[in-house]
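Postdoc handover notes: sequence design on the structure in folder B. Input tokens:
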């Protein structure tokens, strides 16, 4: 209820972050097979902190790799059903001599206010593949490392003495689509949270704020999908307040039963709205109230929404009727001590640094970021190109690319769907990106078509689509001055030009930056770009001489797969 919203801790959430029991195995054959059983003796297990990377807790080996798959040079793997598959792919990860496994156990009691309700668990990020058990019962499997995975624990959860078991595999079938340019970590690296689901619950909500062409008036539709433990009627109310707390809209309707859910949409017109943009990220406070059949308030869902309009007119992207200029960076999530396991203070520090240095945009290279990052971008006015967790760089871009392989269509599509469905309500997200360095083919075309049907309010980009494929923006990497000018002066080129990567910031780099911006200021359809990249991805590391260094590539193991210091491309240092 509304009183709960004022509390520092949400009483319907219970964090499982903290110390867990842990065992490391170098391959699947050596893992503790029965560890998930509630009778299992964990006296031989170690302790590990969750969230965190297993490698940075002192296990396995730290490797930074750019384009290769981690096994290249040691074993031959090609994705099952890919063109060069030999037919012997079964077991290539489950029977590999090197494919580390992390076995985690967490003992917990439900918080008092969680008891008696449906209980879900959300893993915000687990790299790379995870199996889940509760109290000896198998719950499920997930392998999309950078989008949240949620499971229903209700049939097996107890008030006291729960045994939660998670087994995480470093390499899996997901490896073919998660070949990003970064440190190859694994483990539970984002928050783990229990959710108490009320008897009447809002399962999903789509806020669709519209800024009209006059840039003064607007409208908003709120589409809701709810569930109820019995067949009672449920009423949904929509309340909209301005930033100062004044009520602008109050409207309700009774939800209709549709496909085992309760659904409904509320639409309202607004004579005057404040605009959201980088200079003034004005957010309205929206609330959805669900009321049970007896009229009692069952649930309140708060959300901040913003009114802004993205459109492409005559080869130029406009935001709220003005030509959009992107002074952007590519941003890996990074902390020199904890890797991609970052906290709220890390995110706030990144935002503060960006605002001080005239950076107005971020491309989430090359995966969806932690939930709270998008909230901060909404709040502070950072434009986001939200990229899906798809990169098959090691397969190359030609005929072997998984983008052309029908067996991988569903995986390409689902990873894009999950990215969009999670981030839809954030005004900071102005473009969707289908992925990175994964070739081009029908699988990306299907993803593009699905997104444009689901969300026509945003542009969709993909670098590998080039100038002729399905992309709304021509977004090349490292396009030189001459080619930029040639593109801008060719009237047959119908898309805006925004470089998804340029001005590579490695070593004594960033030279020639003014020349790019002279061109951007001269030609309307060249609208900026995203510097590669924001922060050096080096780890704090104690070397053989006992001194702390910011280490890269071969510092950890010079004879292992490594791309040396190519992780240090950032505008700012790792500290």
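Designed sequence:
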């Amino acid at each position: 209820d509304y009183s709960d919203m004022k509390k520092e801790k949400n009483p319907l959430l219970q964090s499982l972050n903290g110390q867990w029991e842990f065992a490391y195995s170098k391959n699947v054959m050596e893992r503790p097979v029965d560890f998930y059983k509630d009778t299992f003796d964990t006296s031989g297990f170690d302790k590990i902190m969750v969230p965190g990377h297993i490698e940075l807790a002192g296990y396995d080996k730290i490797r930074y790799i750019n384009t290769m798959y981690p096994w290249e040079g040691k074993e031959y793997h090609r994705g099952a059903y890919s063109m060069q598959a030999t037919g012997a792919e079964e077991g290539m990860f489950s029977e590999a001599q090197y494919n580390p496994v992390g076995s985690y156990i967490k003992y917990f009691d439900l918080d008092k206010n969680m008891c008696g309700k449906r209980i879900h668990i959300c893993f915000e990020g687990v790299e790379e593949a995870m199996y889940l058990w509760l109290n000896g019962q198998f719950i499920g499997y997930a392998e999309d490392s950078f989008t949240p995975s949620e499971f229903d624990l209700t049939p097996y959860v107890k008030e006291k003495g729960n045994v939660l078991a998670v087994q995480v595999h470093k390499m899996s079938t997901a490896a073919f689509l998660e070949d990003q340019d970064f440190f190859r970590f694994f483990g539970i690296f984002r928050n783990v949270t229990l959710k108490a689901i009320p008897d009447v619950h809002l399962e999903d909500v789509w806020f669709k704020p519209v800024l009209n062409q006059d840039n003064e008036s607007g409208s908003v539709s709120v589409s809701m999908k709810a569930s109820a433990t019995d067949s009672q009627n449920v009423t949904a109310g929509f309340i909209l307040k301005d930033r100062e707390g004044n009520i602008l809209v109050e409207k309700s309707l009774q939800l209709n039963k549709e496909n085992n859910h309760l659904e409904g949409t509320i639409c309202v017109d607004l004579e005057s709205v404040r605009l959201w943009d980088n200079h003034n990220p004005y957010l309205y406070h929206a609330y959805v109230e669900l009321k049970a059949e007896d009229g009692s308030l069952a649930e309140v869902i708060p959300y901040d929404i913003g009114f802004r309009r993205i459109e492409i007119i005559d080869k130029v992207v406009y935001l709220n009727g003005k030509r959009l200029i992107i002074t952007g960076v590519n941003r890996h999530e990074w902390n020199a001590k904890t890797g991609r396991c970052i906290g709220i203070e890390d995110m706030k520090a990144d935002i503060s640094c960006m605002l001080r240095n005239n950076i107005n945009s971020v491309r989430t290279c090359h995966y969806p970021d932690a939930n709270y990052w998008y909230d901060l971008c909404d709040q502070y006015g950072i434009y986001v190109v939200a990229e899906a967790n798809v990169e098959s760089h090691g397969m190359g871009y030609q005929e072997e690319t998984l983008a052309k392989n029908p067996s991988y269509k569903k995986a390409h599509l689902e990873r894009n769907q999950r990215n969009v469905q999670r981030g839809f309500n954030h005004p900071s997200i102005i473009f969707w990106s289908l992925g990175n360095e994964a070739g081009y083919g029908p699988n990306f075309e299907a993803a593009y078509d699905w997104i444009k049907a689901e969300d026509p309010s945003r542009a969709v980009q993909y670098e590998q689509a080039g100038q002729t494929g399905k992309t709304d923006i021509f977004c090349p990497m490292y396009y030189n001055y001459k080619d930029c000018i040639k593109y801008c002066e060719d009237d047959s080129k119908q898309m805006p030009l925004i470089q998804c990567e340029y001005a590579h910031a490695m070593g004594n780099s960033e030279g020639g930056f003014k020349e790019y911006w002279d061109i951007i200021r001269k030609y309307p359809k060249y609208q900026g770009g995203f510097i590669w990249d924001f922060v050096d991805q080096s780890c704090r590391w104690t070397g053989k001489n006992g001194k702390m260094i910011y280490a890269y590539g071969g510092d950890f193991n010079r004879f292992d797969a490594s791309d040396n210091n190519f992780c240090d491309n950032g505008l700012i240092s790792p500290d």
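Context for whoever picks this up: The two ends are 41 Å apart (CA to CA). Don't rerun without checking with the PI first.
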